[in-house]
Structures are given as C-alpha cells and as structure tokens.
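User: structure tokens for Penicillin-binding protein 2, please.
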Amino acid sequence: MKTTKRNKKDLIDIDIIDLNGSSKDGGKKKSAGKKTASAKKTAGGRSAASGTKASGRKAAAGKSAKGRQGSAGASASGGESAAPVRRKGNREFAVITYFFLALFICLSGYFVYFLQFKSEDFINNPYNARLATLSDTVIRGRILSADGQVLARTDVAEDGTETRVYPYGPMFAHAVGYNVNGMAGVELDGNFNLLRSNAFVLERLVNEITGQKNQGDDLVTTLNYNLQETAYDGMGSYDGAVVALEPSTGKILAMVSKPDFNPNSIAKDWDSLISGDSSELVNRATQGLYPPGSTFKIVTALAYMREHPDYANYTFDCTGTYNAGGYTIHCTGNEAHGHQTFLEAFANSCNCAFSDMGLSLNVSEYGDVAEDLLFNHSLPTSLGNVNASSFALTEQTSPAEIMQTSIGQGTTLTTPMHMAMIVSAIANGGELMEPYIIDHSMNNQQQLVRQYEPQSYGNILSASETSALQELMRAVATEGTGTALQSDRYTVYGKTGTAEYNSDKDDTHAWFVGYATDASGKEIAVAVIMEGAGYGSRQAAPLAKKMFDVYFR
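Assistant: Done. Predicted tokens:
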C-alpha cells in the first residue's frame, strides 16, 4: 500500500510540475524533467504518515492543476489571438508615423528650396502689394555698371519729391529699364533689392525716429560701359539688337536694342510709345524674333555631323543654284562657289550645299538637335520676358521647306540672346552658362549685401562637337565671309548671316554671331542683328569687330 500511495503521489507531483511548466512556458521540458526526478527522490524517503497528507494534497492538487490548466489554456488561447492584433496595430502606427515623417521632410526640403531659389521671385512679383509699401519708407537704390558708372539714381528735392534719373538716357534704356507705368529691365528684376535697405541699424533707428526714409540698396550690374557705348553707337540708325556675353560665367556685358526710348521722359511719352508702330519699349535682344539666316547653319552643321560621322568627307559642286522637288535655292548673289568641302561650305556660307545637306537629314533627328540647343524651349536666364525661339519641321514638311530651314529661312525664328548663348556654349567647351545681369547688391556704405553667382545649365554639346564647330567657325574668319574680323590681338570664331524677311528678297537683315579670345583666355561672345541692313559680312561683322577691339584693348 505504501508503494501504491508513493507512486500516486509521484504521479501527482509530476502532473503538478508539468502543469506549472506548461502554464509558464510549454517549451521548458528539460526543466520539468529535472523537477520530476527530484520529486521522486523526495517521495521515496517519506514515511507512511505522509500518505494521509499526500491524499489531501492530491485533492487540492487536482483542483489546483485543473485551475492552472484552465488558466494556461485560456492564456494560450488568448495569446494566440491577441499577438497578431498587437503586431498589426504596431505596423499601422509605424506606417502613419513614417508617412508624417516623410511629409515633414518633404515640406522642410521645399521650404529650404523656396527660400534659396524662389523667395526673391515671389517677393519681387509686380503683383505683390507689399512692395508698394516699401517705397513709403525707402528711397529707391541706385543701379550701376560693372565699372562703376551710375545708370539710375533717385534725386530727392527739398520738399521730398523723388525723381528717378537715368544719366545715360536711351543708351541703357532696355537693359536698365524704367520704373513708371509698370517696370522693365533691371528696375523690374531687382525691384525688391532696390527697395530693401541694409543701412546700419543705428541709421535706420534715427530715420525711424525722425520720420526720414532709409536709403535703398544699390545694384551693380554686369554691364560694361565701354562695350555698351560701342554697341549703341555702332548700331547707328538701324533697328535691331546687340548682345555680348562672357562665355565662362554668363555675365551680360552689353545689351542694346533699337529703336529706343528715353527713360527720363517715359511718363510724358507713354501714350505715344504704346500707340506707335515702332515698338520702342520692346527689348529686341530678348523679345525680338528674327529669321536667323545663315547663322542657323551652325545648327544644320551640327545635325549633319551627328547623322554622318564621315562628314569631313562631304563634298559639293556649287553652281550658284540648287534644284530639288521643283524648288530652287540660290547662293547669295547667285555666286557659284565651285567645289566645296564641308568646312568650305560653312566658311563660304554656301546655301546650295547646306540645302543638299538638309535634304539628307532625318527630320525628327534634325528637330532633336534644334531642341538640344533650346529651340522651342524657355531659355535658362534670370531675365524676365525672354521669348522662346521656334523650329518646326515634321515628316510631312515639303522638300522646299526643309531646304529653306537648313539655311535659316522658312518658319524658324530666334532671338539675338539665344544665338549669343549658343556661341557662348561653343566657346565654353559645350557648357552653357545662364545669362544674368545683376552681379551684386550693396548697402549705402558700399558693403556687400549679396553676391550673385554664375549658374551652369549644363552641357548642350559634346567635347568633339564643340571642337568641330570651333574649327568651322574659325574658318569663317580666316578664309570665309568674316575675314574682316581678323586681328593680331585676339582670335575670332564666327558665322555671318543674311536673312530675308519678306517677299522682296532684296530686303535682308544683317547678322553676325561669334566669339573672340586672347592669349590670356579672356573671352567674349557677341550676337548682332541690324534690321534691313543687308549683308551680315558688311554691316554686322564690322560692328562685332569694334566690340572685340574695345574688349581686348
């Protein structure tokens, strides 16, 4: 009987230990086994008297085991259903957290971008009513040339009347602009800076107490006075435009447009200026759209080089006329250039050869080349009101239209600024720098407030394409239509152009686009168009040479 009781007790102890183990951790079998062995050893050494107690413990243990088993079962069941719920809740919470974190990062990034790149444009918007209130407390700042000439200032009379004065009148009219009946030029682009005062704090405090206005900041432009004067005088009585850029930075060194106006009397002359047919207020350098004439042969030559890697082997026999598809193209003055290589056809501006090249081009790829050079695109520049050049050819375009387009006629239109940018990129190894006209701002103590840095648009030409185009443009000056540009002080690369602009083929605009560099690496790119002036080689190129002479003297 003792043995039987002892065995039952052992079983009871084992059950209790197993149940306790499973209620805490069903996987701890080794631990349960050790406890069982220990229980057996203890039970073997106990007396018969413990049987009665064992019997009592058996009943209690049975209840306890059942209770614990029920509790363990409930716990296990609850754990199996609750754990996935907790994981799902955590996952949803994490997704929401990450979403708002990403949203915060995006908003913070845009805020930084806006402050750095867009805030000034927003503040400077002419529709911003707050700008008008600044003029109540600030005297508009001055505008100066890069070499220190005052191009615009505000004179204050004894009675407090303010008058905006432009010392050089029409010469800088389109570049500097005006500040009545709206704004234009630097007056518009730098409006906020001119109405912002960074005068000393003490000075502003005194002015606040005494009711005096603060002096606005000055703007120093990139304009070179001597170049501007040369371009303005060189245009004479011809309408048109001149743009000069520094290829390595994009600085606008000169920008002239004619017909012009006198910004000193613009308020009085306003009605006549806006009602006339001459469009004096239009800046032809950035808004004038012209047929590019033979200057567009730069684009056609590039397209031909891309499609024909063996372009250097191209030859053509020019008789002065070229017939295709029932249409005839003439070289200027019906001149027969004779046997022409690719380089000679470019240097001599042979219309017949380039019409032949144009017909060999894939129209779609031709359009891609034009768009790579930013035709049909907004130009990357800080200037306002710059028109986009246009190029339009399709698979349905007639051979006649293709031939016209290949020599810069047809429906193709461009601005002088755009052509200056293209030759600047050629001069700069294929990299296009964005044109800009404000160099820096400073307070009334001549302390720097903000420096504007050059911005690169990126490469629009490869190194090999740049080198090939430079060779072609150099040949224009050494053996082609631009030999009058030669100098022993600098090296010239260019392209002349004569663009027909109405049904009378004798009416032509004179074009020149190109650049010059000296031994020190100093460079300048120029685009000149003179409306109705005739041949580019006889009118526009000589003006460009005058500008080169002034720049490198």
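User: Anything notable?

Assistant: The CA atoms of residues 380 and 434 lie 6 Å apart.
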